[in-house]
Amino acid sequence: MRATVAAALALAVAAAAGAQPPAGHGQHQVSSVAPPATRAVAPPSTLPAGAHDRTPAVAPGAFAPSLALAGDDLLATWLEPLPAGGHRVRWARHRAGAWSPPVTVAEGADLFANWADTPGTVAAADGALYVWWLAKSAPATYAYDVRLARSTDGGATFSALGTLHDDHSAVEHGFVSAAAEGRGIRFYYLDGRATSQGGPMQLRSARVEGATIGASELVDAAVCDCCPTAATAWADGSAVAFRDRTPDEIRDIRLALRPGTGPGSQIEVGAERWRIEGCPVNGPALAVGRDRLAVAWFSAPADRARVAVAVGSGPAAQMGPAVLLDADRPLGRVAATSLAEGFAVAWLARAGEVAELRLARIGDRGEASAPLAVARTSAGRASGVPRLILRGDDLWLAWTEPDGPGLRVASLAASALPRPPRAARR
């Protein structure tokens, strides 16, 4: 049976007044807004001028896409339902204008298939590929582990490495993001080892090199229970953006820096003091370009939903002010990537009763362009989290249209994005 995060933020207007009351700090809770009696159906999208459909060969019902780069190649990972029940993790490579035949990395009735907590791929410096996915560890809804597999033949075959984390409690482990770190990969993930005793969800990391999974390391002892994380390579090490959680239920975005040498540090991003007694299931996005970082996120302080971005610079990633991208009741679910100059951010906006996938260009100082509408999709959970990555001169996006063709991938020249107004670029 397909598992989903129960009562997730269906309309993503994450008002604290609509959140479920907590039963104790650290317990898995999800903020919710009651869905409408009848869900609006989003018709299949027509891509904007200059965009090209690049969808690989996916089965009906495919969802939960992710994108990554390995040199000049694009790597895609997604989930597909199996005819007899259960799911499979699929993987494909785009090279020389064509997709490879999809490869099944893992399959079975024990896969935890979810719209927000998704599988993914990351490439190591030696060319090895790592794919992660989720598998149930016990009958409880949120009892699942992160499984890992490695390929040393370009993705033709994958060998299972086992469980990413060293905790084997029947609790939640997931919301993985990863970045190349030296000759290995640094994986960041949410770890619920303390939740069985009433404690908070933790953010942890583990470094993997070759076939060896390193010990778990604590990054933050109390974070939001089910918001995705976002990692990137940074300063010969790595950085991760995540939604923090304080004892009085402030759930703002933080950035943890782990340089290749010297001590790590944490930075508060936005400082909005959003108090919400439940998880909004809406994580940040993180991108790095030259000596700058961009963090994009959703929040709803004072019950006003918004999407914002901030740009940081220097070795300590000193963050600039938050720049508002959308304050018209957006759903959020942000994605970000670097450009030759600046960054691009994608998010799900409100378009009447459905959602609209939009893109904006962000300058090096955080100035934002007018948004470009790319596609329309459902405003419900089934539309998932869009993905965005720069490949050469083109932006590649992946998203899900559950009322139409399902999983979609498209490319668009980065130059097609509007530029920020001249006044904003001064």
Per-chain topology:
Elements: E1 52-53, E2 63-70, E3 73-81, E4 87-95, E5 98-99, E6 103-108, E7 120-123, E8 129-136, E9 144-151, E10 159-163, E11 173-181, E12 184-191, E13 201-209, E14 212-213, E15 217-223, E16 230-234, E17 237-243, E18 253-258, E19 265-269, E20 285-289, E21 292-299, E22 306-313, E23 318-319, E24 323-326, E25 332-338, E26 343-351, E27 354-362, E28 372-377, E29 387-391, E30 394-401, E31 406-413, H1 422-425
Antiparallel strand pairs: 1-31, 2-3, 3-4, 4-5, 4-6, 7-8, 8-9, 9-10, 11-12, 12-13, 13-14, 13-15, 16-17, 17-18, 18-19, 20-21, 21-22, 22-23, 22-24, 25-26, 26-27, 27-28, 29-30, 30-31
Based on the model shown, name its key terms.
Neuraminidase; mainly beta; five-stranded antiparallel β-sheet; single chain; 426 residues; globular
Describe this structure as you would to a colleague.
With 426 residues, the protein is mostly beta strands. It has a single domain (42-425), classed as Neuraminidase, CATH 2.120.10. The protein has 1 helix and 31 strands. The chain has one helix at residues 422-425, and strands at residues 52-53, 63-70, 73-81, 87-95, 98-99, 103-108, 120-123, 129-136, 144-151, 159-163, 173-181, 184-191, 201-209, 212-213, 217-223, 230-234, 237-243, 253-258, 265-269, 285-289, 292-299, 306-313, 318-319, 323-326, 332-338, 343-351, 354-362, 372-377, 387-391, 394-401, 406-413. Strands 2, 3, 4, 5 and 6 form a 5-stranded antiparallel sheet that branches. Strands 11, 12, 13, 14 and 15 form a 5-stranded antiparallel sheet that branches. A hairpin with a 6-residue loop joins strand 21 (292-299) and strand 22 (306-313). Mean pLDDT is 90; it is low at 1-28 and 32-38.
